[in-house]
Amino acid sequence: MSTEARILGRRRPGMHPGALIGPNAVLQTVAVMEERLGHAGTGAILLDAQIHALPSGEDMIPEMQALRLHRWLALHEPMGCYVIAEEAGARTADYIIANRIPAPVVRLLRLLPAFIAAPLLMAAIRKHAWTFAGAGVFTPRGAWAFAIDRTAAGDTIPLPDSLFHWYAAVFTRLYRELVAPDCVCRASDPAEAFLPRRSYAIRRIG
User: Fold this and answer.
1) Topology of 3-9+19-204 in CATH?
2) Average pLDDT, the chain
3) Is the dihedral of CA 164, 124, 173, 57 positive or negative?
4) Longest dimension (CA), the chain
């Protein structure tokens, strides 16, 4: 198996990338919500988002669960949703590093110079983008930039801007932990208001 394949594991056969994503998109977000909003506040959002039971963490989940969760989180907490999304994204990346990337690969990436580690990491992410992009289209632009486009995803609910901050937070933590500690990922503003497409750039600020 190649280094890239070992980084994020193998895709399970039979999974449709347009419908399923990893359960931590919900689990980590709810954990942060519980800490910041309390049990009652979190429960109200989960009820509106039609999430009546949390994922077990063992299987992929319908991406609509995460989309509804972020949508209703933004409606309940229009300012706080950004802080929650960023912390949840960082925790999701921590989970990936601890549980989905073999420890020898983590050590290797951390030892490599950033100009070598970054392309390896981005290549691995590209192969497994279906686990977080769902029906969206993930397009790398070299090792330090990418786009997520949900224009053709057929989303039935408006997507909050905080969801796209969640993606940036995941990449910020992955790159900081595995490429260089001064990496920051930021999304650019969409060309048109409410357009479900974002371009991202990862930069070193040190």
Assistant:
1) H-NOX domain (3.90.1520)
2) 90
3) positive
4) 47
